[in-house]
Amino acid sequence: MPPSQPHYRWAGEHTAGRPSALVALLRSWAVGLAVLLGLQYLLRQGISQQFGAAEHADDTGWRLFLLQLPTMACALLATLAAARVHPSPHRERPSSHLVACLTAPIATRGVVMTLRWEESAVGGIVAPTVAVLFGCVIAVVVDMSMDGRG
Fold first, then answer.
1. What is the pLDDT of residue 97?
2. Rg for the chain (alpha carbons), in Å?
3. Which positions ≥6 away from 68 have C-beta within 8 Å?
4. Do 66 and 51 form a contact (C-beta atoms < 8 A)?
5. pLDDT tens digit string along 119-130?
6. Cα 139 to Cα 100: distance, rounded to the nearest angstrom
7. How many other C-beta atoms can be found within 10 angstroms of the C-beta atom of residue 126?
8. The pLDDT of residue 31
9. Could you read off the pLDDT of 59-111 as tens digits, one per residue?
10. What is the value of pTM for the model shown?
11. Contact (CB, 8 A) for 32 and 80
12. Other CB atoms within 10 Å distance of the CB of residue 51
């Protein structure tokens, strides 16, 4: 390419083996979403078969154990997976890295709240949202400590 013509880097273009910012972002989102949905499916199936969630629906301790702790664990692991997949040249920018690792669990929580808005009480909205946010915060702290930034 002649030096007089500017070269614009397209979203899918790679330079020196490094993916563009958009490709890196999409890859982190895909990994986070896959981990989140896979873990939620496995945990929900295992918990409902092992403990019978309907039997303990009125007990607050059991509800915390059966619903909120798995929600927090899924958000934590999905955020951590998305954060670890986000490649090095892009993870140094905190805003880009936070968008890459937090989008899948927070967006999924937003979709679930939107779809179940009429059938949810205040406790059904606040408790899972706090569990997701708490899992995300723990994952970001763990990711920063793994990188030596924390």
1. 93
2. 19
3. 127, 128, 130, 131
4. yes
5. 777 777 888 899
6. 13
7. 11
8. 97
9. 667 777 777 888 999 999 999 999 999 988 888 889 999 999 999 999 999 99
10. 0.79
11. no
12. 13
Position 102, amino acid: L
Q: Give the residue from 4, 28, 23 showing the smallest Cα distance to 12.
A: 23
What's the one-letter identity of residue 108? T
DSSP string, the chain: --TTS--PPPTT--BTTBPPHHHHHHHHHHHHHHHHHHHHHHHHHHHHHHH-TTTTTT-HHHHIIIIIHHHHHHHHHHHHHHHHHS-HHHHTSHHHHHHHHHHHHHHHHHHHHHHTTTT--HHHHHHHHHHHHHHHHHHHHHHHHHHT--
